[in-house]
Write a structure and sequence with these properties.
This protein is mainly beta and 131 residues long. It contains 1 helix and 11 strands. Strands 2, 4, 5, 6, 9, 10 and 11 form a 7-stranded mixed β-sheet that branches. It has a 4-stranded antiparallel β-sheet with strand order 1-3-8-7, with no helix packed on it. It is globular. The N and C termini lie far apart (37 Å).
Length: 131
Amino acid sequence: VQLQASGGGLVQAGGSLSLSCAASGRTFSRGAMAWFRQAPGKEREFVAAVTWSGKIAYYADSVKGRFTISRDNAKNTVYLQMNSLKPEDTAVYFCAADRESMPYTYYEDNYYRTRESYDYWGQGTLVTVSS
């Protein structure tokens, strides 16, 4: 089972980047998927998550209105569109998927925001936003 994140890079403040995370080894169409990030010297933090259906998304306050998470279950892929980037968005971005212990379930808000809800993690892709 592997999650492969891509799309990171260097961008100026105000610019945009689009991240992708392709899953292989099994299907992830029945559970939650998310993006977290970790800046140097800081804890890994929640960025965005999406339900199994793709119909409901959750965002950290710091990215709400600027980032959009989506998924394509046919392609086993989750995306993160990042607009109006700020220097404080600089971090390694990780995609994650839960174990689907309860397939096709809509959980409470806090489930999607908690690192411990996710069992599968990608290797991370670096996003650097210059001022």
